[in-house]
Amino acid sequence: MSSHRVNRREFLTLLAGSIAVPAKPFDTPLIVKLAPDGPFDSPLIVRLAQDGPFDSPLILSLSKDEPLAQDRPLPPVSWTCPMHPEVVDDRSGACPICRMPLTPVRLELVWSCQLHLDVTEPQPGACRTCGRKLVKIIKALSFTCPSHARVNEINPGKCPIDRRTLVAKYSLRPHGDHNPKHGGNFIMAPNNWHVEATHPAPSQFRLYVYDEYSRPFIPKGFASRIVMGEKSIPFKPAAGGMFLDARVPQIALPAAIVVGARFEDKQPEYRFDFQFYGYSKEPK
Fold first, then answer.
1. Which of 86, 88, 138, 90 is nearest to 112 (CA)?
2. Residue 263: its pLDDT value, please?
3. pLDDT tens profile 27-81
4. What gap in Å lies between CA 23 and CA 55, rounded to an integer?
5. pLDDT > 90? residue 143
6. Using one digit for the tens of pLDDT, what is the confidence trace for 96-117?
7. Maximum distance among all alpha carbons in the chain?
8. What is the 3-state secondary structure (H, E, C) of the chain?
9. What is the pTM of this model?
10. Whole-number Cα distances in Å, 140 to 64, 125, 248
């Protein structure tokens, strides 16, 4: 039996028989998400200390005789290359690029936060961390053991080690998210990375860089510039290092810029064309 000390705004996942101990008295509901080896798959809402301080443990004692809720339909099995994830087929076979055997994967369209990619929800809403509106992205669905993380199966079932019920796990997929994160224009580069350009204010342009999983990352040796005829305006790292900044004086809307970007020293410079019909606004 395990125990966990609970704070006011914490979302907690517990197994049957676990103990939740309030960190301090509070009278707002404690929302407990039950692990799938319990009889429920929806949150159990427990109200603590409604009439006063509650400082003793909350013990979850669940009966497996309760009927199970209907499971969501599983997405179909697709086949992908471990080395070239952009290759996805509806049947097994060999990768057309490297000839490696394709491996099975379940791809599901879910709702997630562009800034907190660990968030996965089955329906639209707001990010529980930052409040930003969730967007649709593609993640891979698999099933793992709560106690043995190396167990990773494509189908639900029991852990081959301790026979516990496997729990759903969502993983990022390369190129599963091509949504602009800062209200700009989002483009995939020839090397499978991504760039997003924004025009937040007159004369100001920002460039964001992401890896193949759409995670922000500016690689060492990255260089970029705005090309205007014979003139070149370099992007420079902004304070905090989250993006690069460049200024083009006296440019009016609609604005069109050509960006040259080199991701690594030995790679060629790639060209990206961006057009802006209004100033970029951060999503809410």
1. 138
2. 93
3. 444 444 444 444 444 444 444 433 444 444 444 433 333 232 235 789 999 999 9
4. 8
5. yes
6. 999 999 999 999 999 999 889 9
7. 76
8. CCEEEECCCCCEEECCCCEEEECCCCCCEEEEEECCCCCCCCCEEEECCCCCCCCCCEECCCCCCCCCCCCCCCCCEEEECCCCCCCEECCCCECCCCCCECEEEEEEEEEECCCCCCCCECCCCECCCCCCECEEEEEEEEEECCCCCCCEECCCCECCCCCCECEEEEEECCCCCCCCCCCCEEEECCCCCEEEEEEEECCEEEEEEECCCCCECCCCCCEEEEEECCEEEECEECCCCCCEEEECCCCCCCEEEEEEEECCCCCCCEEEEEEECCCCCCCC
9. 0.65
10. 29, 20, 41
Integer angstrom CA distances of residue 85 from 140, 152, 214: 11, 18, 14
Q: Sketch out the chain's domains with CATH numbers.
A: 3-59 (no CATH), 77-172 (no CATH), 185-276 (2.60.40)
Question: Measured in whole angstroms, how far is the alpha carbon of residue 141 from the centre of its chain?
Answer: 13
Q: Is the pLDDT of residue 271 over 50?
A: yes
In the predicted structure, residue 194 carries a pLDDT above the cut 80 = yes
- 231 contacts: CB under 8 Å, gap ≥ 6: none
